[in-house]
Design goal:
By secondary structure, the protein is of the alpha+beta class. The protein is built from 24 helices and 26 strands. The protein has a 19-stranded antiparallel β-sheet, covered by helices on one side. The protein has a three-stranded antiparallel β-sheet with strand order 24-25-26. A hairpin with a 2-residue loop joins strand 6 and strand 7 (52-60). It is extended. The model is unreliable at 235-261, 545-627 and 728-757 (pLDDT under 50).
Length: 757
């Protein structure tokens, strides 16, 4: 089409070199929407501005199996877009572009199946990212520089699982990388359960380090080129693969180094005579020290038999609790954390034996070289052998007085604990945190921030080792400072919630506010407080707020309940900006918040007309009775599913309102107030110091003025005093004093009178 002699409107134009354009024109210029076709057959269809590809469009190359769909700017890929490098669609990139260069956040899937998800710079992996090598069953999450692992990261090697094996069959390194090598300080978790923590140089253990063998024994010292420095003749294989039969290896390779072989056999447990085997050797030396030396071998043997009888059940319990709150794992194994262990102890009612969870932590950390800050940490991992050792220690502490005169005492203590506490109660989760899987996945998003607040309000314990703990009264004071204690959540209600599963906190009349709370009790109490504190009025007021204000992330509204069945990594990969934030800090997990606009209000029940009721009755009695009944069953099932979804939606909204809008905001305000108080104190101290300096200077000036005045008065007195002549009497030279002079100098007239007399 033409207008005023110019191409204007839809049309087709072919250049001399064969390039063809079909689409809209505006005054001879290709604009808006159109399609370019190059002489080689390549095509572009999409938005056009001033004759160049700008906006959203799709490009297909005819000479190579390459296609791109996404945003363009001045004829180059710019913004969000996806490019496919082969016809099968197995090699592609989806993410950010800056003028034909991969830059920003993106996902790259290679032809081999390997996937990288993270930050890019100049077409290379650069920044925070995760690479999964599916061909070799490896995964790295951490920092990259110019396409190479560089900085802090976690590299995991997944191994094939052995049937009925409890070990998490993976080797994992967490630490520093330099140019793709393990270099610097790092921690290596071996598949067998052994752990090395120390210095690394070019993928080898080199420098000071600590090696914990699979049986729990520890070697502290120097390493040189992957060898223990004290035994340089030993191969690094003995250290790298603790499951190898080290005794055989030593015999075959180093028959002469009998001392070294003996040391290694003692360390890795290959000469162990434990009935449980070398992989789960129990560390009972602290417990056995409580018994006479002659009774120790029998006590140890009977305790191992007791554990062996219940080992299958204990493995199942360990596996069950370690998987709580975890979405999925590539090798289907999980490590138990202290948070899971506390849940197990509460479910099995260990704390009903007049001992708190905090006391149990102190008992288990005694003489274990555990740092003070990790005694009550919920993130401390617990291996299966550690779990078994903990059970034996707690069994002895709880029941040893009852069986102190009977033998084998340790066997009887453990058997009673299994019979009365573990067998009847294990794997029956009762707390708020882990009782429902979907709610647990949402609640875990608030763990990191709540732990930060918990530690900020803990106080040093009066008794050694003086670790930070929180008492009930400190918890109540904190809530009062946060203004959460109100007419909905009263102090009485607070005590009822805390004492729900602890008979020693409240007996109906008196309350014990001196009991210590571990983080699990603190967090589960907060989950309970959320139901009480968040009223319908609060929910309605928050529903009127924009989602951006609640989530703190402009992409927060994209996360609805539909993501509840996905893993965190899958859910966050939908928004590149959100994923970028989550890689930077744990607190950004709060981006996985709830979209309040999805909450459905209960619809008012409409009363059926009599004719409808008659029709429904007729349908039920009709020959299609079975079909109608089947449909009603489906309707009931759908209705129950809808109710479940609405209930979950309300739960998530309550959690979000309580934690994000109330609890975290109150903590933030208190931190700001503390900072202001601190600044005011520093300002007052500076003013006091300045005032002191000014006062000292003023005192010094006053002292100098006093000295000058005293000196001036002395000089005046010297001038007024005149010496008397020798030949002349004082009566002739001294005139009779006046009244004023007599007052000023009373001694002179008196002395003259005396001379006359």
């Amino acid at each position: 089409m033409f207008s005023e002699g110019l191409m204007h409107g839809p049309g087709t134009y072919i250049w001399a070199d064969g390039l063809k354009y079909e689409g809209d024109f505006v005054k001879n210029v290709p604009m808006n929407h159109g399609m370019y076709t190059w002489p080689d057959g390549s095509t572009y269809e999409g938005e056009v501005v001033n004759g160049t590809r700008t906006g959203f469009g799709m490009f297909k190359c005819s000479t190579q199996p390459v296609s791109y769909i996404g945003h363009w700017c001045h004829g180059k890929r710019h913004g969000k877009g996806s490019i496919y490098y082969n016809q099968e669609g197995t090699s592609w990139y989806e993410g950010d572009w800056v003028y034909n260069i991969r830059k920003g956040w993106g996902v790259r899937c290679y032809k081999s199946g390997n996937i990288y998800e993270g930050q890019w710079e100049n077409n290379m992996r650069h920044g925070e990212g995760r690479m999964r090598w599916l061909t070799t069953n490896e995964e790295y999450t951490g920092q990259w520089q110019r396409g190479i692992q560089n900085g802090f990261g976690t590299h995991t090697w997944f191994l094939k699982r052995i049937p009925n094996s409890q070990y998490p069959l993976r080797n994992e390194y967490i630490g520093d990388f330099v140019n793709g090598y393990r270099h610097g300080h790092g921690k290596f978790y071996y598949a067998s359960g052994a752990v090395y923590e120390g210095e690394w140089v070019s993928n080898k253990k080199h420098g000071l380090g600590r090696l914990t063998f699979k049986n729990g024994r520890v070697y502290d010292g120097l390493f040189s080129h992957d060898h223990i420095a004290e035994f340089p003749d030993l191969e690094g294989e003995l250290v790298n693969y603790p499951d190898l039969p080290s005794e055989c290896a030593v015999r075959s390779q180093y028959q002469g180094s009998s001392t070294s072989a003996e040391v290694i056999r003692k360390l890795d447990g290959s000469e162990s005579k434990s009935v449980l085997g070398s992989s789960i050797e129990l560390d009972l030396h602290l417990l056995l020290s409580m018994y006479p030396e002659k009774d120790r071998p029998e006590e140890k043997r009977q305790a191992e038999y007791a554990v062996l009888r219940n080992l299958t059940e204990l493995r199942r319990i360990y596996s069950f609790y370690s998987s709580l709150g975890c979405d999925q794992s590539l090798d289907n194994t999980f490590l138990m954390t202290k948070l899971h262990f506390w849940t197990f102890l509460k479910d099995c009612k260990f704390h009903h034996h007049k001992i708190t969870l905090a006391d149990m932590d102190r008992i288990l950390s005694d003489n274990q070289d555990i740092p003070v800050e990790e005694i009550h940490s919920p993130f401390t991992t617990i291996l299966l052998r550690t779990f078994l050792n903990y059970l034996l220690q707690l069994a002895y502490h709880i029941h040893h007085k009852e069986y102190q005169n009977r033998s084998p005492s340790l066997f009887l203590c453990f058997t009673k604990l299994m019979t009365e506490n573990i067998h009847p109660n294990a794997c029956r989760v009762k707390g708020n945190l882990f009782s429902r899987q979907q709610e647990t996945l949402y609640a875990m998003n608030y763990i990191d921030k709540c732990w930060e607040i918990y530690t900020a309000h803990c106080r040093p314990n009066a008794a050694p080792p003086h670790e930070l703990t929180m008492k009930m009264r400190h918890f109540l004071w904190m809530l009062k400072d946060f203004k959460i204690i109100n007419k909905e959540l009263t102090a009485t209600k607070f005590v009822e919630i805390i004492a729900d599963d602890n008979p020693f906190i409240h007996d109906g009349i008196d309350s014990n506010f001196e009991l210590e709370l571990v983080f699990l009790e603190f967090f589960e109490a907060l989950l309970s407080f959320a139901f009480i504190s968040v009223t319908d009025q609060t929910t309605k007021s928050c529903l009127n707020f924009p989602n951006d204000d609640l989530s703190g992330n402009k992409h927060g509204s994209t996360y609805t309940v539909t993501n509840q069945h996905k893993s965190p990594s899958t859910a966050t990969s939908q928004g590149s900006d959100v994923q970028n934030g989550s890689a930077k800090s744990p607190s950004s997990k709060l981006a996985l918040l709830f979209d309040f606009s999805k909450i459905r209000k209960p619809e008012p029940k409409m009363r059926k007309a009599p004719s409808d009721e008659r029709l429904s009755k007729v349908n039920f009695k009709s020959p299609a009775k079975e079909l109608t009944f089947f449909l009603s069953q489906n309707e009931k099932k759908e209705k129950s599913m809808e109710e479940g979804k609405e209930k979950l939606n309300m739960w998530v909204s309550n959690m979000c309102i309580f934690f994000v809008n109330t609890f975290f905001q109150a903590h933030k305000c208190e931190e700001i107030l503390k900072e202001k108080i601190k600044e005011n104190r520093l300002h007052l101290l500076a003013l006091a110091k300045q005032r002191k300096i000014e006062n000292e200077e003023l005192e010094a000036r006053l002292d100098s003025l006093r000295e000058e005045e005293a000196k001036r008065l002395d000089d005046e007195v010297d001038i007024t005093v005149i010496k008397e002549p020798v030949n002349t009497s004082s009566s002739q030279l001294t005139p009779s004093p006046t009244k004023e002079e007599a007052v000023v100098f009373p001694s002179k007239p008196i002395s003259s009178k005396k001379k006359k007399k």
